[in-house]
Amino acid sequence: MSATLRIVLTGLMLVLVACGRFTPDDIDKAARKGDLDAATSIAAQPAVDAVNRDFAKEQNEANAKVMKARADANREVNKAARNRSMHQARADHDVTIAHAEEDLSVALEKCKTQSAEAMSACAQHARAVQDQSTSAAKTRLNIVNRQISG
Fold first, then answer.
1. Which end of the chain is more exposed for a tag (fewer CB within 10 A), N or C?
2. End-to-end CA distance of the chain
3. Is-above-0.70 flag for pTM?
4. Domain range for residue 136?
5. Structural domain count of the chain
């Protein structure tokens, strides 16, 4: 074995023995066999282990960031869906109220064609129908508000 190789293997042996990773016998056996790759592999193992630990740590941090980003995105999507539902419920409420008011106007015009006695009862009925429609629209809006609020 050349002197240079012997010096390199001795240095590697000291490093590995100091780390407590391998015994001098392990390195000597590999060197005696002339297996420089095995001796180098044994010597490089602590560095490989350190790189693997660093890689695993970085991978875990990256996974945590991805999970946080997904959770944030899901919260934003849910918030947008709640806002859309609320806007739709308000629009539906407004449309229902507008229809009820228009139906009342039409019903009151029809009531004017009746006799004086029937006209009063007709107008009361028309207003009661409008009140029911308005109340139902408010109830539906309140239900949506409660569902969205959680």
1. C
2. 79
3. no
4. 3-149
5. 1
